[in-house]
Amino acid sequence: METQVPPREKCESADVDEARVRETQEHLIDGLTATRLAWTFKALSDPTRVRIISALSHHEMCVYDLAAALGMSQSAVSHQLRTLREMRLVRFRKEGRHVYYTLDDAHIHDLFHQGLEHLNHD
Amino acid sequence: METQVPPREKCESADVDEARVRETQEHLIDGLTATRLAWTFKALSDPTRVRIISALSHHEMCVYDLAAALGMSQSAVSHQLRTLREMRLVRFRKEGRHVYYTLDDAHIHDLFHQGLEHLNHD
DNA sequence: GTAATATGTGAGCACTTGTTCAAGTGTTGC
DNA sequence: GCAACACTTGAACAAGTGCTCACATATTAC
């Protein structure tokens, strides 16, 4: 049995319509939050970036090895890493000629895995 | 078969490099999974869609009210709802002239809120 | 110093995305 | 029948994305 929301009359009955709209607006997240939230999800909305996150979720890696593991060009990987850097999803440290990347914090790991679980549930 | 010389034997110690790459590849999610996961996140990567999800997370709404609550044109909302439909994030039922939309399942709600918490933690 | 290695970056291009405008369904009421 | 309403859809366009290519750094080895 469904939730006991009384079936609405019409859209024309202004009070019901307006009440629903007004109540929704009160709980609605604001534009800035929506934009920032969308931005976060966008960081994970590309297969290449998802695979990079997947690789880095095990241990830090340098660009060269990352490119080898993913079977991609260094340039393409570097471009995506730049994006991930700007989105604060990854951190890096330099060691001689190498630059080692890691996930910035555990949150990313969590979101990544929550998404995976979501997939497996379907 | 041709001798596939891997284009790397530098990175100083070749064995560590290869072991790291090979181990990473074993744990790496496959291309299809990465694509599907990216696809899921992409559904949530637009501010308008995030706001629609936010609105629908409280109760089902028809397109007209949704447009009113978000302050957008019906057409723009309808286009995004189409995307959300194709991505299986929302469900709809028709009732006369109205089309009522709801979130498809609780997973979406969870991802949405996990993302929100992630924002608040920064 | 030069050369090789490891990574970064800008330009260019094909492709995708989100919006608006206009026209299209389908349902209701007269 | 017809008109109003609720919603969908197609075309068009600006804006954004991700790749390749070529060049620019920076570090190390010689």
What does this structure look like?
The structure is a homodimer of 122-residue chains. Chain A is mainly alpha-helical and 122 residues long. The first copy, chain A, folds into 2 domains: 12-42, no CATH class; 44-121, Orthogonal Bundle (Arc Repressor Mutant, subunit A). Chain A contains 6 helices and 3 strands; from the N terminus they run H-H-H-E-H-H-E-E-H. Chain A has helices at residues 14-27, 31-43, 47-56, 63-70, 74-86, 106-121; strands at 61-62, 90-95, 98-103. Chain A has a 3-stranded antiparallel sheet with strand order 1-3-2. In chain A, a hairpin with a 2-residue loop joins strand 2 and strand 3. The longest helix of chain A is centred in the last third of the chain and has 16 residues, at 106-121. The two termini of chain A are 23 Å apart. Chains A and B meet through helix 1, helix 2, helix 3, strand 1 and helix 4 of A and helix 1, helix 2, helix 3, strand 1 and helix 4 of B. The structure holds a DNA duplex (30 and 30 nucleotides).
Features:
Arc Repressor Mutant, subunit A, mainly alpha, DNA-binding, 6 helices, 2 domains, disordered N terminus, 122 residues, three-stranded antiparallel β-sheet, homodimer
